[in-house]
Amino acid sequence: MSDTAPSDALDLEARIRELESENARLAAAAAPSTVQRRAGGRWRSVVSAICIVVAAVLVPVSIVTAWARVQLVEEDAFVSTLAPLVSDAAVQDMVIDETMKAINARVDFQDFTSSVFSGIAGIDGFPPRAAQALTLLEAPAADGLENLVTEAVTRVVESEAFADVWATATRAAHRALTTAATSDGGGLVVRTEEGVGIQLGMIVETVKQRLVDNGVNAAQLIPEIDRVVIVGKGDNLAAIRTGYALATTLGWWLPVLTLVLFGVGIAVARRRSTAVLGTGIGLALGSGALALALSIGDAAMPTVATDLDLSPSGLDVIYEQLVGAMRHTAIVLLVLGIVVAVLGWAMGRSAAATGVRGAVGGLNATARRQLASRGLDTRGFGAWLARYRVVVRVVIAILAVLWLIALQPLSIGDIFLVVIVAVVVLWLLELLQRRSDELAPSSDDPVAADEVVPAEPVPDSVDDEAPDASAAPAGASGASSQKSAKG
Fold it and tell me: 177: Cβ–Cβ under 8 A, 6 or more apart, which residues?
């Protein structure tokens, strides 16, 4: 007995040393792969962060270029933006004031009346006292004639016929604008070397014809007016044409590039929940910055109107009509970014997010068991949904994004509609899944038993910082062996 004990002790001691050597070898072999994986994970984090940050910066630029492309390429959109302006009272007043300024610059009503009265007084046999009376009437007559022209301009500008003229001219201006050979819109809205303006010649000509038709023959003396009211300054037409080319090109590709960068940032991330959260925050910050900038521009309109010598209220209406669609889109994307950020948080590893997911998962499992007890058996389809549930979620998310893109113009109600529909579809597909830990297969149903999918955990995110499990068994076995030796 005394000879056997030392021999057993020596064997155990040799076995322990052998296991320790094996553990050291396995740890040395696993260490490089762990370091390599973590280094690769860091690069993925950097690439993901760069993509999301660049996409966030491109969000406001994409909104502006997409709006510009729509206005420049689609004639109906251009007309629908500018045509309603003539129905606004502030814009009408601005057009009337500027039209009368143009007429007064070319026609001296006082001199015109004086010439007419002098001609009458010079008629042979005209009584001297009557001539003196005429001189007293010159000023009222000049004022009356100017007021008559002003009233005619007002009636023309405020008439429905002029709204049709404005819309027709705006449509013609867009068609001329899209022709690279011209530097001028050719209608009410024109582009000159000084910038974008409203051509008053057509308005004056319409007023002149209306006066003549109403029997005011003196209106024939109104000369042709060639004056453009500049409402937006530009450097030159070369820059405008360059901007047109850039807007029509970038307006299509920038939104696509922004969406692709967000997608790549999520796809290559180690933790996709963090990437989704960053995408939502970036989308909200980018669109929110644009909405804020447009609001600041709105506040600066009175100063701009003073510099241009235009009606502040009229220019403010024009500015709001031009940027209103962009501001609306920015606000909508801001709400969408908040929704995406909340989704990213719900996918995260915080205690609150884990608790929410656990509660939802428990409710879904209970609902699946209840439905199964009532005879609902999805069989192979349910097994497929359980096996590829991550793929199904990704497909539904992509379809939801495509739906949002198709809804133009997008509204906040559209966002909530798409989100609610996507969540309901995801929930229904979750209930239709068939999992082995929730539904025990019946022994007399071999087909169902084969179709049940084990409830293996499917990670929703990739995390390369997770501890390496390859060395754990070796360490565990060594510790177990040491316990046995001590025992």
Answer: 72, 185, 191, 244
